[in-house]
Automatic annotation (TrEMBL):
Protein name: DNA-binding CsgD family transcriptional regulator
Compositionally biased tracts (Gly residues): 1-16
Gene Ontology MF annotations: adenylate cyclase activity; ATP binding; DNA binding
Entry-linked CDD domains: LuxR_C_like (cd06170)
GO biological process, one term: regulation of DNA-templated transcription
Length: 779
């Protein structure tokens, strides 16, 4: 065989066949076609699906299994620009297998290089040419000969690009199957059609297999081991179950901890940094016109028109239209509405932008800005644009607002963006600077600042500071509503009354204020807090009734109105879990987490992930519980620790305990206890209860089993592991650690994996925190 695409280069029958991840059912169906070819005659199979879904990998595995059965395997790939060569994809597959003594080969000397054909035939051969009739039948004769006696698997990849004569041959084979055990496999994009048997002449002569994206659990098996929980979650989200896209989306090896980003950055904004090789394969597979069109579209982002792309690319419109046609055929872009197009997947735009030439990109962005610069850019317009970005891309908004912190409004909005993107400590500094002049800002900005400042202080466990800020805030009904909501949340998390009022009383006030303002989302938020307060007080019937009222209020909102109140989901689902409405809670948590994570809202994503981990743990699904708990732990540590870290670490400890891993559970519970120490009695009691649970379990373990005691410190690490941990705590990347310790980056990854396993942790941020805690304890 020709060996194109690695077909048939798998195992040769020496061991058990292993299906590609998540493709066992599809592979069994394809293997069934090999058996049917011997009993029922030739088969014509099409494997369709979107780009990167793994069609070629699946066909390659089938080729390996066919070869192990003794079949002849011939594979070819249709290439862009090959339309001028007759039967190009078929010749690519069969050229290594034909010789002059093969029946029918004499008519094909002008086609196959193996038979002496030149680069191009002396006379063009088209579908309507008299020669085409005889060439097609000669090729059918050759295929029948090559199939005897064991069988022939003919794999034609990228068949949607096939030249006209190859298409005519495939149509002929569909209507007149070879009289031999032949399985012809056509691998193609789902945006194009390929010939299959028509009519009812032989309903069993063909199979069409649609290859669907992988489920998250299957796709997760393809991820590299050194990723953090949040990085894993982002890649799974962005790859959308496409294995090839998952491999293409690689973070740089020396990037350190990747900033949490949302899908808006991928689709419209500035995508995250990717490894230099990301997108190179995509670039190589497109014509120059299509690649230039894709690059210009990526600079524009979002929905774009052909006219806009032509202006940014600085080429005639006809070239852009030709490029868009190719990109649509290849499944890279799709038409939407009003003569506009979008990238089929936001992550593909990131790949294209990453692989485009830097110098060209600068000029293209200048042309794109000139297209939209109808009005001069003013500070007011910048602030309004950044405020709009806060809900969908807070990290982007923070970068934009960093240029406008001279004004009170800009400083408040910048601090709010920092909180939403998971940097409360920096936000508190900004709020402290702006607070003496907060009255200079408008009421809406002040109300948002009160809630956000309160959230930042709560995330850090600074209860007294939060109490002073919230009780001192005033000025306007919307500010009052924000203060009441924030005080209810603070009372719940600190376990203390705020200004002599309980969480339930603050929530009731907030519900009244929101009703007076006609703020349905604010009222739903208040009712969610009220339900959580009932649950926290152990009042089952009150919690059940309050949760029903809050759920009704949330469901009555206009579509999308609840999206600005993701905290309402957290409080409501806390109550629903308490009263046993886990299925409804899981549905709301799943929807809310996906939204928060897609929009880069780090604190909310962490809380909602914690809720999902709790629900899955109660359902005894420890695998899903661990995945969500790991995300909650990492986001909590990104947010500075505090109460969210205590709850997340305790939840992860419970997952370890449920899985019988008491040593890891003990270590995480000890870490939670350290975070709980400065938070007060309620939080210390939570950690102590979990440690007692683990102690009970350990007393029932077999002492002969050995193992390290829970809560063991850094002295359990080897000398080299301790060095790696110390450098991680200093913020060094794997590449920097490798250079300092004269190791390879791969060896550093191995040491990190050992550290993670010993302490039952999942991220570099946790390593840094443990090193810091150990240092503080020794002082």
């Amino acid at each position: 065989m020709s060996g194109h695409g690695g077909y048939g280069n798998g195992q040769d029958g020496g061991g058990p066949a292993v299906a590609p991840v998540g493709r066992r059912t599809e592979l069994l169906r394809l293997e069934g076609e090999l058996e049917r070819a011997h009993t029922h005659g030739a088969r014509l199979v099409s494997i369709g699906g979107e780009p990167w879904v793994g069609k070629s990998r699946l066909a390659g595995e089938l080729a390996s299994r066919a070869r192990a059965r003794g079949w002849r395997v011939a594979a070819g790939r249709a290439v862009r620009g090959g339309a001028g060569l007759p039967f190009a994809v078929v010749v690519d597959a069969l050229d290594d297998h034909v010789s002059a003594d093969v029946p029918g080969a004499a008519r094909l000397e002008a086609v196959f290089p193996a038979l002496g054909a030149a680069y191009a035939p002396a006379e063009p051969v088209g579908p309507d040419s008299p020669q085409a009739y005889w060439l097609i039948r000669a090729l059918r004769t050759v295929i029948e000969h090559l199939a005897r006696p064991a069988g022939l698997l003919l794999v034609l990849d990228d068949a949607h690009r096939a030249d006209p004569l190859s298409r005519e041959l495939l149509a002929h084979l569909a209507e007149h199957p070879p009289q031999a055990p032949v399985v012809t496999v056509l691998v193609h994009r789902d945006t194009a059609s390929v010939p299959l048997p028509r009519g009812d002449r032989d309903a069993h002569a063909g199979l069409h297999l649609d290859v669907a994206p992988l489920a998250d659990r299957d796709a997760a098996a393809l991820l590299p081991p050194a990723l953090t929980a949040v990085e894993r979650r982002m890649l799974l989200r962005d790859a959308a179950g496409l294995p090839g896209l998952l491999r293409a989306l690689r973070f740089p090896d020396d990037s350190g901890t990747t900033e949490v980003y949302g899908t808006w950055e991928l689709e419209c904004g500035t995508p995250p940094a990717l490894a230099r090789s990301s997108g190179a394969e995509l670039r190589a597979s497109q014509s120059p016109a299509a690649w230039l069109t894709a690059c210009a579209a990526a600079v524009l982002g979002g929905a774009f028109t052909a006219q806009d792309v032509a202006r940014v690319a600085d080429v005639p419109l006809r070239e852009t239209l030709s490029g868009l046609d190719e990109l649509q055929r290849e499944g890279i872009v799709r038409a939407v509405r009003d003569s506009r197009f979008r990238f089929r997947h936001p992550a593909v735009r990131a790949l294209v932008l990453n692989a485009s030439d830097g110098g060209w990109r600068v000029g293209a962005r200048t042309r794109a800005q000139a297209r939209t610069a109808v009005q001069p850019v003013t500070r007011r317009r910048e602030l309004d644009a950044a405020r709009a970005e806060l809900g969908r891309a807070p990290a982007v908004a923070a970068r934009r607002l960093a240029r406008h912190t001279a004004s009170v409004e800009g400083l408040l909005l910048h601090a709010r963006a920092l909180v939403a993107s998971g940097r409360p400590e920096q936000a508190v500094t900004g709020y402290a600077a702006a607070w003496p002049r907060i009255d200079e800002a408008g009421e809406d900005v002040r109300a948002e600042a009160v809630e956000s400042y309160g959230l930042a202080l709560r995330l850090l466990g600074r209860w007294q500071d939060a109490r002073e800020v919230l009780l001192g805030a005033g000025g306007g009904a919307r500010v009052a509503l924000a203060r009441q909501l924030a005080c209810a949340a603070l009372a719940l998390e600190s376990g203390e009354n705020i200004g002599r009022q309980s969480a339930a009383e603050w929530a009731a006030q907030a519900a009244c204020t929101a009703s007076a303002l006609g703020d349905g989302a604010g009222r739903a938020h208040a009712l969610g807090l009220a339900a959580a307060a009932e649950a926290a007080g152990g009042r089952f019937e009150g919690a059940a009734e309050a949760a029903s009222v809050a759920a009704h209020a949330l469901d009555a909102l206009e579509p999308g109105a609840w999206e600005a109140r993701l905290d309402a989901l957290s409080w409501l689902t806390d109550a629903q879990i308490y009263v046993g409405r886990r299925r409804e809670a899981e549905r709301r948590l799943t929807e809310g987490f996906a939204l928060a994570f897609d929009r880069g809202q780090v604190p909310q994503a962490g809380r909602l992930a914690l809720g999902l981990a709790t629900v899955r743990l109660l359902a005894e699904d420890t695998t899903a519980a661990a995945d969500h708990a790991d995300v909650a732990v990492e986001t909590a540590l990104r947010c500075g620790g505090g109460p969210l870290a205590v709850d997340a670490l305790l939840c992860r400890a419970r997952v370890h305990l449920a899985a019988g891993e008491s040593v890891a559970a003990g270590r995480l519970a000890q870490s939670a206890a350290r975070f709980a120490a400065p938070l007060g009695g309620m939080w210390q009691e939570r950690a102590d209860r979990r440690l007692q649970d683990i102690g009970v379990v350990r007393r029932h373990e077999d002492p002969a089993a050995g193992g390290e005691q829970p809560g063991a410190g850094l002295d359990t690490l080897s000398r080299r592991e301790a060095q790696v941990a110390a450098l991680v705590s200093e913020g060094c990347t794997n590449a920097q650690i490798a250079a300092r310790l004269l190791l390879s980056p791969k060896t550093v990854e191995t040491y990190l994996s050992r550290i993670f396993k010993k302490f039952g942790i999942v991220s570099r941020a946790q390593v840094a925190h443990l090193v810091g805690l150990e240092a503080a304890a020794r002082r």
